[in-house]
Amino acid sequence: MLAAAAAVYAAVALAVPPGFFDGFTQQVPYRFVKPPPCCVHNNVQPQAGHLTIKVGTNGQTDPASAFTNDESPQAILSVLPGAFDDPDRSPVSVDITPEASYPDLGGLQCATNVYLFKSSKPLKLEGLITLRYSDQLPAPSDIWYAPEGGGAWTKVGSTGSAAPFQIAVRTKQLGYFAGCYPPGASQPPAGPTLGGGQTLPIIAALAVVLVVLGGIPLALVRRREPGPKSPSRRRGKRR
Amino acid sequence: MIAAARRAAPMPPLGLAVFVLAVEWARVLAAREWPVAGQLGGGLALLASVAFFSPAALGLGRDRLPARLLGAAALIAVLLLPAAVRWTGELPLGGGLAAVTVVVAAGEEVAFRGALFAAFERAWGGPAAVLGTTLAWTAAHALSHPPLFLVAVAAAGLLLGCWRLYARDLVAPLIAHVVADLAL
Fold it and tell me: How crowded is residue A186: how many other Cβ atoms within 10 Å of its Cβ?
């Protein structure tokens, strides 16, 4: 029974796309442009963000972070000094807007809104795009990008994030960004595989072995104990 | 006060289940307004359920400690296996949240596999205790987890409940739950 429970847990937790979690949920509810069925109640529309990045005395644009004006910012662009191609040394305008219309996602399952990142001048150095995602949907495996002028979505990856419920990526291109996972994904494509793709049965078998090995000492100690100690055993004798 | 509670008439299992579920749902709702205080208050309220049972009835104790710790290691490995297969280098929770996580995870384990399990087992036997605590545990997560994930929550509850029944031990599930919540 215990071994079967271990196998069931391993199989189910592995099958939940794209990653089972427990522990803490985020504190501030995610704001959706188009809320999924789980999150229609009390949904608040997300905010846009704007920042004007000045040029420092060294002639380079300042380091800065532009973020949306939500209670807990849902989209952030962070740049280093001189990140923009700014030959005329004028301030750079950055806008981040949650979008209701965007290129067709083609089956991508997103846990974030689609955000349009725009700047008045192109990036010269990589900027860091960070997206907060909903705790009510499966976590995204990667950030995906589509050009502002339209076009197909492409995966730009994920650099990970130290904060829970955030995903980030470095990029030199601005346009549409969203945190998603591919349709029908049972695990991130970049994840390791074992035994030529036989991950699930191997993990389930490993879970069984571990829990049985871990339980054997307790079982042996219980058998050596003089007489029943637990309430159920005592009750069993009375019956 | 704890001794008085233990001397009092046994807590009815369904009454205890309602209490534990109410605390869990209140914790989730309160944490939306007061994140740390809500989680911490809920975790401590769950821990209060130890008042109704002796440590032995809850599955706690220092006897068989090496075996219990080995069991905890095995359960931790099993609970984290699916996440380990997928791990892409993302860091776990930070320090502040981690401290509250310990209280909440320990509180959940004491309340569900400890007190509620003992009450169900006393009333209806071991298998009913596993099934009942698994159902209550899954329902308790309905407000904080997407519906799809509740299947995995139920499977984790079933595994920990089976361990509690088979090994007569709560130490291993308690440690495993805390570590898993810190990592997942």
Answer: 15
Phi, psi dihedrals of residue B73, rounded to the nearest 5°: -60, -40
Q: Contact, A180 vs A110, CB < 8 A? A: yes
CA proximity to A65, closest of A75, A167, A56:
A75
| pLDDT for B2 | 55
Closest chain A residue to the Cα of B72, Cα to Cα: A214
**pLDDT tens digits, one per residue of A52-102:** 998 887 878 888 889 999 878 899 998 888 898 888 888 999 999 999 999
Interface residue of A218, A224, A239 to substitute, partner B, most B CBs within 10 Å = A218
CA distance A130 to chain B (A): 14
Give whole-number Cα distances, A159 to A133, A142, A152, A166, B130, in Å.
15, 9, 22, 11, 41
B1: closest CA of chain A, how far (Å) = 23
Predicted-complex ipTM score: 0.82
Contact: A188, B79; criterion CB under 8 Å? no
pTM: 0.61
Closest C-alpha among A94, A92, A50 to residue A69: A50
CA atoms within 13 A on the CB side of B55: 5
Q: Taking Cα atoms as reference points, which of A110, A186, A119 lies closest to residue A155?
A: A110
> Do B82 and A137 count as a contact with CB atoms less than 8 A apart?
no
The single-letter code of the amino acid at A20 is: F
Closest A-chain CA to B71: A214
